[in-house]
Write a structure and sequence with these properties.
Elements lengths: L2 E2 L9 E2 L10 H9 L7 H11 L4 E4 L6 H12 L9 E4 L3 H14 L7 E4 L18 E4 L1 H10 L9 E5 L1 H18 L6 E6 L4 H10 L4 E4 L11
Parallel strand pairs: 3-8, 3-9, 4-6, 4-7, 5-6, 7-8
Antiparallel strand pairs: 1-2
Helix pairs in contact: 2-3, 3-4, 5-6
Length: 230
């Protein structure tokens, strides 16, 4: 049963203390167990079901608190893998982080048969022999490359319903802020936005104010930020 926790800005966020309470897809649940995730981390207790609900969400927590896994689980719960169409875009600041995100989604999505495509410089949909024949359900890439592919039409955006920024502070810090609106304009509406970040910066809050609808804010509880008991 979910409970409300009331500390600071997380007021009103439902907290789920076990993965069972989240009633996740059974194939996804099996993968979570096989990854050895017995209990959600503190961030995951609030973030997974907030994102899964379809609301706009901002998550701020330190490295290693389970943010990337929370994103992967939420995306996998949201998308319909029976539908061969791209439904979620995940942007990361670097090639390496985009690759890590791809691996996390592919690993946790194994039993859901998810197709997840890396989209970074040098690996381009449409002209790359490593590209699978199937349309990916999820794209994990860097902002510049994903933007180019949307512009060129190599990435079909019609049914994309989630745009996720992992490392949003770093992305906006490194010049992408001016391009965000352009990329956003290529995507259909309504679109769920999720920003994950180690720090909440003015850039993130400014962009959230203009693009997000009443975002849920999940900020690390300073007293409970490690997952050693998870
Ligand atoms: N619920 C969980 N139970 C046990 N281990 C977990 C759980 N969630 C995540 N982990 C593991 O903890 C490590 C950190 O998780 P994750 O990468 O999701 O965190 P992060 O906050 O995104 O960190 P970073 O910013 O360093 O990538 C990974 O090895 C992951 O497999």
């Amino acid at each position: 049963m979910s409970q409300q926790r009331h500390f600071g800005p997380n007021r009103g966020v439902s907290t789920y203390h076990t993965f069972e309470e989240m009633r996740l897809n059974s194939n996804l649940f099996q993968s979570i167990r096989e990854h050895g995730f017995n209990h959600p981390t503190d961030i995951q207790k609030g973030a997974i079901m907030s994102i899964t609900s379809g609301k706009d969400v901002i998550v701020q927590a330190a490295s290693g608190t389970g943010k990337t896994s929370a994103l992967a689980i939420s995306i996998l719960q949201r998308i319909n893998t029976d539908m061969p169409q791209t439904q979620a875009l995940v942007l990361s600041p670097t090639h390496g982080l985009a690759m890590q995100m791809r691996e996390m989604i592919a690993g946790l999505g194994h039993y859901k048969n998810v197709q997840v495509q890396l989209c970074v410089e040098g690996i381009n949909m449409g002209n790359n022999s490593h590209m699978s024949e199937q349309v990916p359900h999820v794209i994990s890439g860097t902002p510049g490359q994903v933007y180019n592919m949307l512009r060129q039409g190599t990435l079909r955006a019609e049914v994309i319903e989630m745009l996720v920024l992992d490392g949003a502070d770093y992305i906006f810090d490194h010049g992408f802020i001016d391009r965000f609106q352009d990329l956003y304009n290529y995507l259909p509406s309504p679109l769920q936005l999720v920003f994950m970040s180690n720090y909440l910066t003015d850039d993130i809050l400014g962009i959230a104010e203009t693009t997000m609808k009443n975002p849920v804010r999940i900020l690390e509880d300073p007293g409970e930020d490690d997952y050693s008991n998870a």
